[in-house]
Specification:
Blueprint (H helix, E strand, L loop, with lengths): L5 H10 L14 E4 L11 H24 L6 E4 H7 L2 H4 L1 E2 L13 E4 L4 E4 L4 H11 L4 H9 L3 H10 L4 E3 L3 H6 L1 H6 L5 E8 L18 E5 L4 H11 L3 E6 L10 H4 L4 E4 L5 H13 L2 E4 L13 H7 L4 E6 L14 H8 L1 H8 L12 H24 L1 E8 H10 L18 E5 L2 E5 L5 E2 L24
Parallel strand pairs: 1-2, 8-9, 8-11, 9-10, 11-12, 12-13
Antiparallel strand pairs: 2-16, 3-15, 4-5, 5-6, 7-13, 14-15
């Protein structure tokens, strides 16, 4: 057992449990294998990845034991496998077909007149904003336009126009800003118990897997939210992802972010769409929302209104820049948050570089997804025992704060010796592929994907029988 990995697990376990439900005795069920450092970084990325996977898997095992009234089954986590799933989108390998690049041709870091800035253009409307604000059509044109202006001026103009960008700030600069001051104490998960409610439908479903019979309404995009719902699907949940008709997700992510799930199209701008959505909410057990803080409320569905439709509903939300302060509703992605909060600058300073040095993987996205999954699992266990429901809010900035609190490596970052990584065979709607296997095992359980990965909107917007 790699005892060094128990420390990050214990920290993450404490931060993903409801108040009064942080029992640490379950930690003894987890054993670790693999090296202590897999992903080299000035930050403890390996500890974050392995601890997040372990916390979620342990929470699933705990829920399964509670549902079946059995003892907690042993959980095994390999650090190399846990770290591999944090770059699953990069390691996914089509067989006989091709995927577009993970990044749009304009996305990336640019040197402005005074400092670095990162532009995020993976969505067409974000790319259009960059075209309009900078009057540039290609990467060379963007580079030339950025070089003659201040980074903060560009950031402000792009954000004001509905785009996504982030200046590289030091940790000190971030904490001195209004957004940094508002979120300096942002935890990994904000967990609010809502009190006892009526009987819960999923309790009586046959619990072959931890989340068997649990209905999860998935309103998430990109990586963090889909990672959470992918974890729930892997362990038996009926996950239904809902998007507006015609919505175009980043195509290169879909083979990883839709596996195990059904996908449907619902238009909240129409009466029929609203009626369909409300029926889904009434019969769901968990809703996971990855939109900006107030996006769903604009359609009339804030937490209070969702709870009015379904008092037993566990509501889990994530956003980029936290739940307080002026950037609460700001568009953000992992790569941008790393630039804003000091991670990219600290990585550069540690290595003596004059350019951003981000984490080796999009660890804020992936860790937030796994930790949200852990919190949902523990909230379901709490609901099983007390009939209380829970509202959960996580954020990428909360995960960044956690990473700053974790002890960094004591020596210069150095990757473990490469280990042979076996990708598993998989079928998708587009063809055969090889993907990173889901990490973490619970003794006695045999998990599988209930649905192959595929296009958005390809299923009916309804729940299956429990």
């Amino acid at each position: 057992m790699n005892g060094d990995l128990q420390t990050p697990l214990a920290r993450l376990w404490r931060e993903t449990g409801s108040p009064g439900f942080e029992d640490d005795r379950a930690l003894g069920a987890v054993t670790f294998t693999g090296p202590r450092v897999v992903l080299p970084s000035e930050f403890d990325v390996t500890g974050l990845a392995t601890g997040a996977v372990a916390a979620a898997t342990l929470a699933a095992a705990q829920l399964h034991a509670a549902r079946r009234s059995t003892v907690l089954a042993p959980v095994a986590i390999d650090s190399a496998e846990a770290c591999a799933v944090f770059e699953a989108e990069k390691l996914f390998t089509p067989v006989g077909w091709a995927l577009p690049s993970l990044w749009d041709s304009l996305a990336g870091n640019y040197r402005a007149a005074d400092r670095w800035i990162r532009l995020h253009t993976n969505y067409a409307h974000h790319r259009a904003v960059v075209h309009d604000v900078l009057a540039a059509e290609d990467r060379e044109g963007v580079r030339a336009a950025v070089a003659g202006r201040s980074a903060e001026e560009i950031e402000s103009a792009i954000v004001a126009a509905g785009g996504a960008a982030a200046v590289m700030r030091s940790r000190t600069e971030w904490l001195a800003s209004a957004a940094g001051q508002a979120t300096v104490a942002e935890p990994v998960m904000i967990i609010e118990e809502q009190g006892s409610i009526a009987p819960v439908g999923w309790k009586d479903a046959q619990a072959d897997l931890p989340f068997s019979g649990v209905r999860v309404l998935d309103l998430t995009r990109v990586i963090a939210g889909p990672v959470c719902t992918k974890f729930l699907a892997w362990h038996g949940a009926d996950v239904l992802r809902v998007d507006p008709p015609g919505f175009e997700e980043v195509a290169s992510l879909l083979p990883e972010t839709t596996v195990g799930k059904r996908t449907a199209a619902v238009d909240l701008a129409t009466p029929d769409g609203r009626a369909t959505f409300e029926q889904l909410v009434k019969l769901a057990d968990v809703i996971v929302v990855g939109y900006r803080a107030d996006a769903l409320a604009k359609y009339g569905y804030d937490d209070a209104q969702l709870a009015a439709l379904n008092q037993a509903l566990i509501i889990a939300r994530i956003n980029a820049y936290g739940w307080e302060g002026p950037w609460r509703s700001r568009k953000g992605f992992d790569s941008l948050v790393q630039m804003s909060c000091g991670i990219a600058a600290d990585g550069a300073a540690a290595r003596g570089l004059d350019e951003p040095m981000p984490l080796p993987v999009q660890a804020l996205d992936h860790a937030t997804g796994w930790l949200l999954g852990a919190t949902i699992a523990r909230s379901l266990t709490h609901q099983l025992m007390t009939s209380a429901t829970t509202h959960i809010r996580g954020s990428l900035i909360g995960t960044a704060n956690l990473l700053y609190r974790m002890n960094p490596p004591s020596s210069p970052p150095k990757a473990a010796k490469p280990r042979a990584l076996t990708l598993e065979e998989s079928h998708t709607e587009w063809g055969r592929a090889r993907r990173v296997a889901m990490p973490g095992t619970i003794a006695g359980l045999h998990t599988h994907w209930a649905q192959p990965a595929g296009r958005l909107g390809r299923h009916a917007a309804c729940w299956r029988d429990r």
